[in-house]
Amino acid sequence: MTYKINGTDISTLGVIVTDYSGLFDALEPKSVKTYDVASQHGVMVKNDGIRYKERVINIELLILAENAAQVISNIETLMLAHSRIRLERINEYDVKVWDCVYDKEASREYYHENAERVNIVLIEPAPIKKVYKSTGNFSVTSAPASGSTQQPLLISCGDYTLLENKRAGTHTHTYTDGYDSHYVIVSGVLDEVTLSGLTNLTLLYSVDK
User: Fold this and answer.
1) Model pLDDT for residues 168-205, shown as the tens digit of each residue
2) Contact call for residues 65 and 114 (beta carbons, < 8 A)
3) Residue among 145, 130, 139, 138 nearest 170 (CA)
4) Domain made up of 2-25+53-124: CATH architecture
5) What is the pTM of this model?
6) Is 202 exposed, middle or buried (0-12, 13-18, 19+ CB in 10 A)?
7) For the chain, what are the domain ranges?
8) Each residue of 69-95: pLDDT tens digit?
């Protein structure tokens, strides 16, 4: 199993993922919004359907290196190099991708100078998503599944570019980093959005709860 953080295979740094939680767990629904109206029995409920909380990911890393503390510092520098952390988990069958932000170092256990164990916490702010593989500059058209107002989309292009608050229309991105392919994540209230006109995008998988 290969884990990459912002494109770097962390095993090449002397880091082994020994445990994790949250990567594949079912998401926790948000509480229903209620309003207490004095003139009414009970409460009034604002129910737009199920909405989910952010995904919280815990990763336990074992660092076996000549200077483990320096490697931990290097890992954290790698994670903070961009506004988002692109976490990839790759095996011989498929790849899973998360677009995260760094939350904290939850714990660190010192063994000796060349071995430490550290737990880090990442947050995936927009966990309901479709993950595509792009083979070049891409475009995708979005529209409301019903009605006239579309829920906003967040598109993470795979090169640390975010297309934010995208409403109905055609959304495009041109790559300048020299790579032939990228993993593109489209997130939002996707059951209320229709996506069409995909150019250079192949759907890999979806997360809907």
Assistant:
1) 999 999 999 999 999 999 999 999 999 999 999 999 99
2) yes
3) 139
4) Beta Barrel (2.40)
5) 0.92
6) exposed
7) 2-25+53-124, 129-207
8) 899 899 989 999 999 999 999 998 899
